[in-house]
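Homework help thread (please don't just give me the answer)

Our assignment gives two proteins as sequence + structure token strings and asks us to describe the second one. The first is just a warm-up. Here they are:
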Amino acid sequence: MASVVKMPLARRDARALGRPPLRILLSAYACEPKRGSEPGIGWQWATRLAELGHEVHVITRESNREAIASAYSANPIPTLHFTYLDLPKWARFWKRGNRGVHLYYFLWQWRSLSVARALHARVRFDVVHHITFGVFRQPSLLGQLGVPFIFGPVGGGERAPRSLRRSLPFRHRMSEWARDAANAYAKVDPLLRIGLRRASRILCKTEETRRSLPHAYRSQGELFLEIGTEPDPSHHPPAHIVGPEPKHPGSLRILFVGRLVHMKGLHLALPAFARLFETFPGSQFTIVGSGQQEHELRLLAAQLGIYHRIEWLSWMTHESVMALYPDYDVFLFPSLHDSSGNAVLEAMSCGLPVVCLNLGGPAAIVDSFSGITIEATEQDETVRQLGDALLLLARRPQLRAYLARGAQNRASNYFSWRNQVDRMNTLYYEVQDNVSTRRTQ
């Protein structure tokens, strides 16, 4: 059942829009405050667009209601409204434990179309925007409302390089092959084509995803990362950024945050850290996260003789993770196919240089002024280059400080939420203008 909740009145944001506010319908299956990843993305776009002055209606899951209500009891926004939608109880077991979440999501999308039509009959939206899930293979049908439709930013077209797949266990290679097959099917999926045909704009997180679109729509894909940071004027850069001496002389404190699954590349990070450890035995590697590969990774750390220099931290709240970043010197994130990289941007906002592979979203976020990107080749060569990057940062504290400043500047400026929302705001008015032009021709 779907139910509509209006948020109570509050002071409107003072920034001038320059044009009349829009009535926006946002499809955000994942939308939850104080969360990272997809739920946090849905929440950020919903609240920030509403704070800009637009009237934003969000269709999301019933299970998000309690967290949303709690957040808004302290900070209501007058122009933000939620419609909560769930499938019947007999279908909800599919999303438990992620065993059937994609089937549940597909059916949820079908149901959301009828809910959106009812809302549109009452509100008359100017723009419809699908924001989560942000996977290009999973189409949205909301373009059928007949108003300008924004699809994305979406990812999912990223692939683990074949040269690195050979080192993965067979079951993980099977997972990658299944992902390849799903992406191949997407090129001929009739439902996806219907959704793309009705889209005014197709926003892709990475170039790899843009190239994965059906050929007829590839040229319409625009690159747009969906994540952002919030600069805190009261925040002072950590001492190891501005101080004359490194925070941990003669060693590096390295951090990883993410799920412990094969695509995150920790099987590359651990031997790379082992190379650093040979020269700088005082270094430490903290791994924050949990996942199905944890046991294998612990065994690998023991085999490499570095287990005693690794701190394993399981699940933490988003606030706790954010408080953790400033205690470290480098963020190591050799993911094989991340579409964006929330943790990368968070680390940069706290002044951590990033070492990552030149793949997917992290490669789009990190530039030569904020970190070191490594070309993905054969496993041994990739590990060697990752280890050499860590050694370079350990030996050259001035370079580390330079990249730390660059990381914080890039995150706080180019990827600030204000800039990201302003870009989207401009896009909304562009599609509105295109519609008006066509009507007058």
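The one we have to describe:
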Amino acid sequence: MFKGFVNILMKELKELLRDPKIFLGMIIIPVIMFPLLGAVMNFSVQSALEKVENATIIVLNNDEGNYSKFFINFLNLSLRIIVITNTTPEEVLNSLSKYNTTQFVEIPYGFSKNMTQHIQTPNQDITAFINFYAVFSGSSMFEQIGSSAIDGLVEQFNRNFAPNIVCTEKSAIIKEKIQKGVDPSMLSGLMISQSIAMPITIMILLQVSMQIAATSVAMEKEEKTLETLLSLPMDRFAILMGKLSGSILVAAVGALAYMIGFNYYLGSFTTTIPSEVDLVSLGLAPSLIGYLLLGISLFVALLSALALAVIMSAFAEDVRSAQSMIGFIYPLIFIPSLLLMFLDVNSIPFILRIIIYAIPFSHPVIAAKAVTMGDYLTAFWGIIYVTAFTLVIMYIASRLFATEKILTTKLKFKWLKIRRRTSVEEL
């Protein structure tokens, strides 16, 4: 019943692995992509930790008692401390750039008095408070490291005296305004959970659109109907735009259906987690202009991806080859999206940051975070760059459709190609 099964199986495996487009797209690229992604994440973690270790923290000492001085000396053992006295947190906020720091600690008046009373009468419910302020710059998974470092030092300080003798009240600095009672680490976690959906949507939309566009051209080329289509008395650029527009509409419907299901799946976990942070009141929700810029950024990136898919599929012999060839583009979509899903673009190494900015498919994700923080200029320049890239790709695609090369051009890997008939002869 299964006579010859092993021979057929070996033949199929050899054909698939000998196809350079499949071998490179499905094996080599993932092997390179994920270690590279892990290395970047590890480097970002180490950079964030080194940044915290070398960071300067301002201490606003409005108490100036013995215990406040003792607490400052304790912090100075692990952190770089700059002490400022007799001023307000708002005035310190204006001095953060001067000291090249993004966080500061306030020791309020009465700190030493509360410490003394707690130690002398430990049965009384008396607590000494410090206030921690940190600038919230974006939805990065390392946003809470500075806050965690202060928490650890306060815990060590408490172990030397009494449990919970010192408590920390945290506030976030958002768009140069102090938001009392907003924990920067909790805000960062909430923003990360909110920002996961956008990169996933972009990855799905780009991938599905490119598959549809490449299949559309390759199928007509494989079935020999492209010659008939190009011979019709109509502008070939209109044919190109028609194919691209159809791919955009179909891919958008598919991505929307997927995201509805994904949001329901994600919501089943997040509905049980109460949140007292109102992102709209904090100014961390995109405005109408922000949504407009984000939509334009996504549109031009999608258009460039579709045009690029059409160009690459023109070099393919059949549908399978076309889909394998556009697989080479997927790392340019997945790696930036996965990185920017958890990291802020300004927190990654400079060289890698330039590379991320050079990849047009990363700009919708960058724009999504930028418009949330009110940084419309970053989104605008991203649109200009992606538009220029799209115009170049569209021009190349239109020139390819304007000639007969789209019917005859093929991309061959002579250095890797092995005739399939060799596998048949081996049976």
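TA reply:
I won't write it for you, but here's a hint about the kind of observation we're looking for: Residues 269-274, 413-425 have pLDDT under 50 and may be disordered.
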